[in-house]
């Protein structure tokens, strides 16, 4: 964990760590046939959507602007 933090930074690592419960719920669905309630799936979609939106916005901001 500390090596990963040193490579990508603590903020990026904390964003990455927010995906761990999502993978756990997906694997429990596949392997153990344990299913969640619909609001819990909505929460998963909300977390994934917000993380994806953050990455898209951050990537667009880091691109150099083309001169007009």
**Helix/strand order:** HHHH
By secondary-structure content and strand pairing, the structural class works out as mainly alpha
Query: Low-confidence parts, pLDDT < 50 over ≥5 residues?
Result: none
Mean pLDDT over the full residue set: 85
How much of the sequence lies in strands comes to under 5%
Q: Can you summarize the main beta sheet?
A: none
Shape type: flat
Care to count the β-strands?
0
The portion of residues assigned to helices is: over 70%
Description of the structure:
The protein has 68 residues and is mostly helical. 78% of the residues lie in helices and 0% in strands. The protein has four helices and no strands. Helix 1 crosses helix 2 (10-17). The longest helix is centred in the last third of the chain and has 25 residues, at 38-62. It is flat and about 55 Å long.
Q: What's the SSE blueprint?
A:
Blueprint: H1 2-8, H2 10-17, H3 20-32, H4 38-62
Helix pairs in contact: 1-2
Key phrases:
single chain; 68 residues; 78% helix; 4 helices; mainly alpha
How would you concisely characterize the structure shown here?
This protein is mainly alpha-helical.
């Amino acid at each position: 964990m500390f090596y990963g933090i040193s490579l990508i930074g603590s903020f990026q690592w904390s964003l990455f760590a927010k995906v761990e419960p999502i993978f756990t719920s997906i694997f429990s669905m596949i392997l153990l046939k344990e299913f969640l309630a619909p609001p819990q799936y909505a929460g998963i979609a909300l977390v994934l959507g917000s993380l994806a939106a953050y990455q898209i916005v951050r990537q667009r901001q880091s691109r150099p602007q083309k001169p007009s």
